[in-house]
Amino acid sequence: MPQLAKRMGRAKPSAIMVVAETAKRLKAEGRDIISFSIGVPNFLPGDHVYAAARKALDADSGQYGSNRGAEGLLDAFIGHLDGLGLAGYTRANCATGVGATHILYNLAEALLDEGDGFAFATPYWTSYLDIAEIVGADVQLLPCPPEQVYKLTPAQLDAALAKKPKLFLFNNPSNPTGMVYTKDEIAALAEVIARHPDTWIITDDIYNSMVFDGVGYHNFVHVRPELRDRVIFVDSLSKTYGMPGWRVGLMAGPEVVAQAVTTMNSNHITSLPEVVAAAAAAALSGPQDVPAARCAEFQAKRDQVVAALNAIPGVVCPVPQGAFYAFPDVSCAFGKSHSGKVINNDVELCAALLEAKGVACVPGSAFGEPRGMRISYTCPTPQLAPGLARIQEFFAELA
Fold first, then answer.
1. Is there a contact between 146 and 316 (Cβ–Cβ < 8 Å)?
2. For residue range 114-136, what is the model confidence (pLDDT) as tens digits?
3. Does pLDDT of 10 surpass 90?
4. What are phi and psi of 120, to 5 degrees?
5. Residues 289, 312: Cα–Cα separation, whole Å
6. Angle formed by the axes of helices 47-58 and 274-285, nearest 10°
7. What whole-number distance in Å separates Cα of residue 259 and Cα of residue 298?
């Protein structure tokens, strides 16, 4: 029979979804499972979002939408950008997609030829490496271990950009670590970027409204406006507004890049559904009380999670200041055993934790850091303390 394309040999299913599906299956079998695996915010948007969707349904014309995105959604996104201190963008600078993952894939296709350099820090969101490999990029990983609180240093970035990669992808706040770069840290990195004009910059900042401790959200363009000519800002409604199933991603950047993504849309998706676009516009431009309340709730959960993890002897968890993830270094467990089984690595640790205690976490190696594991603390609040207690019990039982 005919064969699949060679690129499919480089495509891999999401490691996060594999864990989430396993937890879902065990729960369906009657197991008492607490899932810290998938990054789903577990809340719904405000009533005004659903009202906008119903109104759009009532006025539905049944026609195709715009390849770039509905004008109302683009205008709402521009207003959101203004609120972030990223003023001056027009509709011609923007484009939409079926979630941020789709935007990132379109950008990789539009900016990278096979063999082009693609640099990003480790730990990374799993799809970065998957997308890079599918498009045949030359991946350049920049290790940011727990000893440097999972953050990229200016010296690392300078050495990486000196190799002239075509694309540098930066994630702030970070998935999987929850780390947030301060204004001074962003300024130091932006100074390096300004010295290397041959590289496109993508800022994957979908958690920009989910920042704790008064740190604030900062972008390279804030401190170096001249970088606007090659910085591409990526955003999403999934996490901030509790709308992962609505699948809305957005980008703002140079007109030529936005037009390239629009062209890709014309061949991939044609357009977002108009009902989805109306709901998304309402989310961005309407009351922000739901996201604000959830951000405060996640900060409180963060405090609970970090305290519980750092109370475990040998476990080290740098304090995340955004998103809803913790990424502890759990390598203290390697070489020890639980219920007679030796734990050699992060994958075996997460498997043993799920089997013994019914707690699902994602192995750090899925994100390029095998000493860690990712905990998404978006579970219902009543499940959080019991889940953390089970993790503590598991580590206490290691021999």
1. yes
2. 999 999 999 999 999 999 999 99
3. no
4. -160, 160
5. 36
6. 150
7. 36
Angle, helices 289-310 vs 381-396, to 10°: value is 20
320's tokens: 């995340």
- Is 68 within 8 Å of 306 (Cβ atoms)? no
Do residues 135 and 108 touch, judged by C-beta distance below 8 A?
yes
Query: Distance of CA 26 to CAs 20, 59, 211, 245, Å?
Result: 10, 43, 33, 23
Question: In which element (H, E) is residue 347 found?
Answer: helix 346-357
Question: What structural domains and CATH numbers belong to the chain?
Answer: 6-44+290-396 (3.90.1150.10), 48-285 (3.40.640.10)
- Amino acid in the structure at residue 97: G
Please report the beta strands in the chain, taking only residues with DSSP state E, as ranges in sequence order.
Answer: 34-35, 94-97, 117-122, 138-143, 167-171, 200-204, 231-236, 249-252, 325-326, 337-338, 341-342, 359-360, 362-363, 373-376
**341: Cβ–Cβ under 8 A, 6 or more apart, which residues?**
348, 352
Q: What angle do CA 52, 57, 59 make, to 5 degrees?
A: 95
Q: 52 φ, ψ to 5°?
A: -65, -40
pLDDT classification of 15: cutoffs 50, 70, 90: low
What's the chain's average pLDDT?
Answer: 95
How far is 318 from 300, CA to CA, in rounded Å? 16
Q: Quick one: tokens of 244?
A: 């992962």
Per-residue pLDDT tens for 28-47? 888 888 999 888 899 999 99
The first and second tokens of residue 157, run together, are 């970035």
Residues contacting residue 72 through CB under 8 Å, at least 6 positions apart: 277, 278, 281
